[in-house]
Amino acid sequence: MNIKTKKSLGQNFLIDKNILKQIVNTVDISNKEILEIGPGSGNLTTYILKKNPKKFYVVEKDNDLSLLLKKKFNDDIEIINDDILKISENKISKNKLTVFGNLPYNISTEILSKWIISMETKIWFECLVLMFQKEVADRIIAKSNNSNYGRLSILSNWKLDIKKIIDIKPQSFSPQPKIDSSLLIFTPKKKFFKLNNAQNLEKLTRIFFNQRRKMLKKPFNQIFKNAEEISKKFNIDLNLRPQNLEPETYFKLVKEFESLRN
Question: Strands of 78-80's sheet, edge to edge?
């Protein structure tokens, strides 16, 4: 059956069998509960099923593809025909899920941010095996003092350990995207820095990185009335730039911001 991809949904179907095999071999999924995001025409779904998962949920926004998946896999999968950004993932199952996703490029960072914030109420997944545009993946895994380092790196590394598995060329997809992709695996950290509200981390890093080329003095004065005092407390040179601070320093600053507001 010929499937017409929809540009509005950022659809690029992975067709390279070697890569598909490599993805399902990234983690042990036999007898586990699986969630696949945007299965498309079901290429990866087929390989996941070969590994005998205990239960298999898929979220597919496209109505036509949902019907196709239903026809192709019958009761082997439970199809949730909805928008992943509108779903409450922790209600899908009482058990922790192993998540696979070739995420739509246009909303991939939004999905990841949503999941990190959802970890405040419940850690609903065992691990995430996700594909991003390579340039987005580079921002996620970037360390401080690197030009790719920014808000996304800090937020991602707050509660998750991240490892890059492989880069994937455009030829592995249909239709071919214009850019390379990267596969990353995320696992929840056993210990992470406790903050009252994840939104504060988003808010402060946005202020800091809005003018990433500027010195820290400006955002510091914007956030703290006593900027000089705070910078001394954390031993921060205000002539540095936002990309020079470690994620841990940002977590401490958010904590300080929260305690001053209470």
Answer: 78-80, 55-59, 33-37, 97-102, 125-133, 181-188, 160-168
Average pLDDT over residues 218-222: 95
pLDDT at 122: 85
Confidence category of residue 9, pLDDT binned at 50, 70, 90: very low
Q: At the top level of CATH, which class does the domain 198-261 belong to?
A: mainly alpha
Q: What are the tokens at 126?
A: 């065992």
Q: Please report the sign of the dihedral spanned by the C-alpha atoms of residue 72, residue 78, residue 82, residue 85.
A: negative
**Rounded mean pLDDT of 172-184?**
91
* CA distance between the termini of the chain: 59
- Given a cut of 80, is residue 53 above it in pLDDT? yes
- CATH code given to domain 7-188: 3.40.50.150
> Taking the domains of the chain in order of start, what are their residue ranges?
7-188, 198-261
Give pLDDT, residue 2.
46
- Burial level of 199, CB count in 10 A (0-12/13-18/19+)? exposed
Strands annotated E in the chain: 13-14, 33-37, 55-59, 78-80, 97-102, 125-133, 160-168, 173-174, 181-188
Nearest to 16 by CA among 199, 192, 183: 183
Asked if residue 12 has pLDDT above 80, the reply is no
What are the Cα distances from residue 237, in Å, to 131, 219, 220, 229, 242?
A: 37, 13, 11, 12, 11
Give the CA distances from residue 41 to residues 103, 167, 178, 207, 243, in Å, rounded to whole numbers and listed in that order.
Answer: 14, 22, 21, 41, 40
